[in-house]
Amino acid sequence: MKQPFETMPTVLNAEEIISKAVRDAEREEVELSDRVPAIIKAKKREAARIRAAEKASAGYLESLVKTVPTIDNLHPFYMDVLEVLVGIAEAKAALGRLSRSARIIREAARSSLSRLRRPKNPKDAASARRAFIGRMASIVRGAAADLETVAKLRERMKDLPAADPAVPTVVLAGYPGVGKSTIVRAISSAKPETRVYPFTTQAVIVGHAKIGGMTVQMVDTPGLLDRPIERMNKTELLAITALSKLSSVVAFIVDVSEANAFTIDRQKALYDGVRESFPQIPFLVFFNKADAADQSQIARAESLFGKRKALSALTGDGLGSFISEVEGALKELYPA
Ligand code: GDP
């Protein structure tokens, strides 16, 4: 699937737009016979130049604004990412001002063209055109910062990996070392891919599995859903919100053997924090490393989390019940 920013073309800066407008204007010549009076020729030539410069400036700004996907129609995931990487209010304001600049240039062109209706000599006609070029250039220069904002938006958004909101997605959470990537590897049909999102320090790992006849994305997000929410900065929190828009189900993995150096109690505290940041999303909890845990550890885990499926990603025991529980949750969300 394509992501909405992928096709945005490079954004010209203010000086590039002005030079192009000036060049296009200079190139305009009108073919008229020698018998046509000089003043008529001058009027036609200058009018053609004004129109060419108008098209290269106002026309460019209008088409630029159209190349940006409509922000309000974006999938919530991309909205959150845009908020993190650019700022939605800033992007919308810049686009609004660019459209207004285009309108002002068009108005200036109209009034210059009407001035051209009654010039007394070719010099007057040329000066109406020059006045327009000057006005156009100063409007475009005034839009320089907004052009930079759109250029930044393109730069940051165009290479984001496509995320298909229609594909059911299971996001794994849990402290480092609980076995998330082992589970993704064990269940995926092919080697999981890694994807780089600009707001996470580590690559996101995505595996694909067939579960209950559906192709499901399994996502592991090192550095994001594996530590307490209170210690996160604003960008990380927004990244989590973005992720929550992609998730169908969160599978929270507990290492019941505590071999990852986090006690079951600390894992429960992490669970509570993550649960709170994904209020709308079904949560499944699994006890991994059951092969290495003793009875008292499982009892402690059950007292905190309730009775849950125990599995071992290492030996493969219980992976079948992991899959069937995920399938059950997905079937409720995506009834066939
Ligand atoms: P992640 O950081 O949550 O992705 O954890 P990993 O999948 O990298 O696993 C961390 C370590 O735990 C690795 O050495 C795994 O081999 C080991 N591990 C994962 N699952 C199990 C399990 O069910 N039993 C045991 N004994 N070890 C496991």
Automatic annotation (TrEMBL):
Name under which the protein is recorded: GTP-binding protein
Domain G, first and last residues per copy: 169-289
Highest taxon listed in the record's lineage: Archaea
Gene3D superfamilies from the UniProt entry: 1.20.120.1190, P-loop containing nucleotide triphosphate hydrolases
Species: Candidatus Methanomethylicus mesodigestus
Gene Ontology molecular function, alphabetical: GTP binding
Residue span(s) of domain NOG1 N-terminal helical: 5-164
